[in-house]
Amino acid sequence: MPELPEVESIRSMLEKRVLNKRISKSEIIDIKAIAKPEPALFGKALLGKKILSVGRKAKYLIFKFDDTSKLIIHLRMTGNLIYIDGSSNLIIKSDENGLPRHARVIINFDDGTRLFFCDQRKFGRLWFYGNGENYTSCGINRLGPEPLSAEFSEDYLCKQLAKTQRQVKTVLIDQSVISGIGNIYSDEILFKAGILPQTRACDISDERAHLLHDAINEVIAHAIKANRSSIEAYMLGASEQYSDLEDMNVYQKAGKKCKICGAEIEKLKIAGRSSCFCPNCQH
What is the crossing angle of helices 206-226 and 4-18, to 10°? Predict the structure, then answer.
């Protein structure tokens, strides 16, 4: 599932390629991908719009147009974007129609380039909001502060942990508390902070909360830098997939040896999510 670092890398890649481009046509292959407006109105709403900026809020991508209207995309579990300009030798897999596999929506630009929204499991969604229209219905207004932001202070995190008996893993992936962290980076963050995922949040001391705050910012900042090139290659169709799992310490490493101490990485279920951890490095 794309998390904040992946979505930021996608945003950065798109910003370099679609700014000031005008939409000439939109094609909807799967109407379920369109959350707003009605699918029949979606193509007309985007027609002729010029992209002025590509922004991001947590895991949401925000395209702002020249008339102040917006297109918001949430990739959810398996969504991705493929940008094709015809100048590169594509190695991505195609369907029987020659389109990238699992393509749900196609945005065509007036210079002949195309942006494909692809989604294998069909959970990703697109919203279009007109000039001056309130765009909170997509859920973006319910998000907590992001890692690396001024709002995400040590004091804020300490207060959030102290007021709940939930397991710390659950708190980290609660988008209303901290936005942008999912199953992947919550495991890596807790490993770096030396905290077991099943630890009750309220039992974490202020000292360890400060370590956790630092771990959150460091892991997210590192991931943004580490996976940008592989994601860009994938989005341009020059790579079959992107993956930063080799850079991970514990995520999906159950049964393997810890890189730090050599102990076997263990796995347990927390709130329906698999959580991997080192029983020696984390306590």
Answer: 40
Angle between the N-to-C axes of helices 206-226 and 183-193, in degrees from 0 to 180, rounded to the nearest 10: 130
Active-site residue, selected from the candidate residues 3, 146, 188, 232: 3
Q: In this model, does residue 104 exceed pLDDT 90?
A: yes
From edge to edge, which strands make up the β-sheet containing 60-65?
34-36, 125-129, 70-74, 60-65, 51-57
Query: Distance between CA atoms of 272 and 130, rounded to whole angstroms?
Result: 37
pLDDT of residue 147: 98
Active site residue 56: no
Active site residue 142: no
Residues 6+ apart with CB under 8 A from 125: 33, 34, 35, 73, 74, 76, 138
pLDDT(64) > 90: yes
- Per the residue annotation, which of 21, 57, 208, 273 is the catalytic one? 273
Catalytic, 269? Answer no
Q: Taking all residues of the chain, what is their mean pLDDT, rounded to a whole number?
A: 92
**Sign (positive or negative) of CA dihedral 82, 88, 93, 95:** positive
Strand partners, 94: 100
pLDDT of 204 above 90: yes
Inter-residue contact 192 to 218 (CB < 8 Å): yes
* Residue 3 known to be catalytic: yes
Active-site residue among 11, 36, 59, 70?
A: 59
Q: What is the pLDDT of residues 145-202, one digit of tens each?
A: 999 999 999 999 999 999 999 999 999 999 999 999 999 999 999 999 999 999 999 9
Domains and CATH numbers, the chain: 4-141 (3.20.190.10), 154-277 (1.10.8.50)
